[in-house]
Design goal:
Blueprint (H helix, E strand, L loop, with lengths): L11 E4 L5 H12 L3 E5 L13 H12 L3 E5 L6 H15 L4 E4 L14 H29 L2 E6 L2 H4 L6 H21 L4 E9 L22 H8 L9 E5 L2 E5 L14 H12 L12 H14 L1
Parallel strand pairs: 1-2, 1-4, 2-3, 4-5, 5-6, 6-7
Antiparallel strand pairs: 7-8
Helix pairs in contact: 1-7, 3-4, 4-6
The chain binds 1,4-dihydronicotinamide adenine dinucleotide.
């Protein structure tokens, strides 16, 4: 028996930053599967400067020429008013919101000691606050209708670290945190919230990927986004590394830890190897703050 194709007929999907790169690919993939897509893009340069309506418009034309349904939107994700306008545009065009893919992004890389405050503000505003501002009005609708799917775009830069990306990495790690919290808040309302940490050949990575560039198309990332956006999606609160067809779950773990015999900095120093130990005895993988607190309470009780 073949399983049915994963369709999105009747579903409305907002994809931010969908005028190019990964967002465009996600938009085409979801539209191809029957979704009505709000193609949001400010149409600026990679560093966030400028704006143009053509990026989103071209993707809408691409989708409609293939027989799909899409509408353009040019608001910035980076303000509460912009987020509200984006969600309103989806409602005006298609009457509901089922899926939000927070994908819009800019880069302003610099070694931390040389980074100016605008490079910090602008990058945090677009990636992290942008996801909050677009997700919040959508989340309210999703709670009311008892159904929703949110996919955030995190990055290895923040989850594992990358030189020169203090602003970007902090924002991207923040998106992993947002994913965990919204997953818990949405769980009782038919809402799942997951994140991807992609690698793909786009203008953002044009000079960075070297030989890998030919193996990591944006189109190889979109199937995971489509899965996480579908009603069959059975996971909530997870973060996935997605690159060139290779997908892996990225996990936050905690060592078994040590209960110090004495409350002092010297005791920390003397037990550091045990506190930091890795591997052999396995890790805890707390599913929430409450779950971690239980682990701590148990360790202290056993002492
Ligand atoms: P891209 O530059 O092609 O796409 C980002 C899009 O967001 C652009 O079309 C841009 O106009 C739009 N945008 C920027 N600021 C906006 C705003 N304020 N409001 C609305 N739209 C805005 O780059 P790419 O690679 O497709 O990036 C997509 C997402 O994936 C980003 O969040 C990026 O940080 C993330 N990512 C990409 C990786 C890669 O290897 N390409 C690696 C890890 C994360």
């Amino acid at each position: 028996m073949t399983m049915p194709e994963m369709r999105f007929d009747g579903r409305v999907c907002i994809i931010t930053g969908a005028g190019g790169g990964l967002g465009r690919s996600h938009a085409l993939e979801l539209a191809r599967r029957g979704a009505k897509v709000l193609v949001n893009d400010l149409g600026g340069a990679l560093d966030g400067s400028g704006a143009s309506t053509s990026a989103a418009q071209l993707v809408v034309e691409e989708i409609t020429s293939l027989g799909g349904q899409a509408a353009p939107n040019h608001d910035s994700v980076a303000t509460p008013a912009g987020g509200a306008a984006i969600v309103q545009a989806a409602l005006s065009a298609f009457g509901r919101v089922d899926v939000v893919v927070n994908n819009a992004g800019i880069l302003r890389d610099k070694a931390f000691h040389k980074m100016d405050p605008t490079a910090i503000d602008d990058v945090v505003d677009v990636h992290l606050k942008g996801a909050l501002y677009v997700s919040q009005p959508a989340f309210r609708l999703m709670r009311e209708q008892g159904y929703g799917r949110i996919i955030n775009t995190s990055s290895a830069s923040g989850l594992f670290g990358n030189f020169g990306q203090a602003n970007y990495g902090a924002a991207k790690a923040g998106l992993a945190g947002l994913t965990r919290v919204l997953a818990l808040e949405g769980a009782g309302h038919g809402i799942t919230v997951n994140a991807i940490a992609p690698i793909a050949s786009t203008r953002m990575t044009a000079d960075l990927l070297g030989e890998l560039a030919t193996r990591v198309s944006p189109e190889s990332v979109s199937p995971m986004v489509a899965y996480l956006a579908h009603e069959d999606c059975s996971v909530n609160g997870n973060v996935y590394s997605v690159a060139g067809g290779r997908i892996a779950r990225i996990v936050v773990v905690e060592t078994h830890g040590v209960v110090l015999p004495e409350n002092s900095a010297e005791a920390v120093r003397d037990h550091l190897a045990l506190i930091d130990r890795s591997g052999a005895e396995g890790y805890h993988e707390p599913t929430s703050l409450d779950a971690e607190t239980m682990i701590i309470a148990k360790a202290l009780a056993n002492d």
